[in-house]
Amino acid sequence: MATSSSPITQVSQHAPAPISSLQPQLLTRLTLDLRGQKFSVDRETIMNLPESVLLCLFPNGLVLSRQSTAGDGGESDEDEDVYAVDFDPQCFSFVLSFFRQAQDTFYGTSNFPGLYQAQQHLVDPGSQNIPAEFAPSQNPLLTKQAIIVLREELEYFAIPPKGDKAKTSADPTTGQPGPDLIDLKKECGQKLLEKRSIFTALQRNVSKENNLAEQHLIDMLCMSGFERDDSWGYRALEPNRCCISSIALVLLKTGITHANPSDPTPAGVTVDNNQMSTAQKLLLFWRKPARKCWWDGLDVDIAKNGETPRIVKLWSRRVWTLELSLI
Fold first, then answer.
1. I want to staple 296 with a disulfide (CB 3.0 to 4.6 A). Which of 227, 231, 307, 316 is the partner?
2. Strands 146-159 and 82-85
3. Would you say residue 127 has pLDDT above 90?
């Protein structure tokens, strides 16, 4: 017979401690502090944002749970985690406003039925309105609102003219630019800021390099929702940097047209299959942003009215990010 010291017959005299199953509490809303301006945004809205914007907001990864678990003696449920984010608050407002308006137009509100209600017949399995290759299971453009997102990060480098006072405006002990050079860079930034046309710089590069792939990119974007003379929807200088951030948002042209957008019935809904085929090519950029980088040289005159021309050579490094968002 085994003794009580046997590991087989030993039984603890105390009940085992319960195993903690606490999990981080998922957040329904996130409070973001963008350079001193707070935004309270629900989780679904955050998840619908473009990938490239999310990477700027959360470079270390998106956190959708509380940092402290419930019952650990931390903050109460009424307290909220605030995430400090180095991102332009006005640009963020522009993106949120565009996405909200696009969502309301497509899915409807309490006062407006929305476009999706009128085109629901297109997703029926037996629908004769669209070819088999555009079947709903293979084509999310029938059930989602698609938005083309184009962003530009422009870093510029100013070369003062020979003999200009800004050229030697630097602290010889530290090498830091002096006030004249800083002013020159700001004036150059303002000149670039005024150039709001989206495709001018890329078209200039196409003409210089005879790059057919870049011309094809412009043509594809203009067939899908952009116009050749479009301007950036939002464009601003980054604080304390020789950098300009720009973004443009347009609804993707899917080929589905509504004769009367306020009519929730299928009457008047038509599909251009050729345009739908073009739109489907943009699905390659859904959740997979594509980037293009090139250098651009430009001369700008920063002289004020009545002054002698003051020509500054600018070299700009432009990075475009193209992606498709579905909401």
1. 316
2. unpaired
3. no
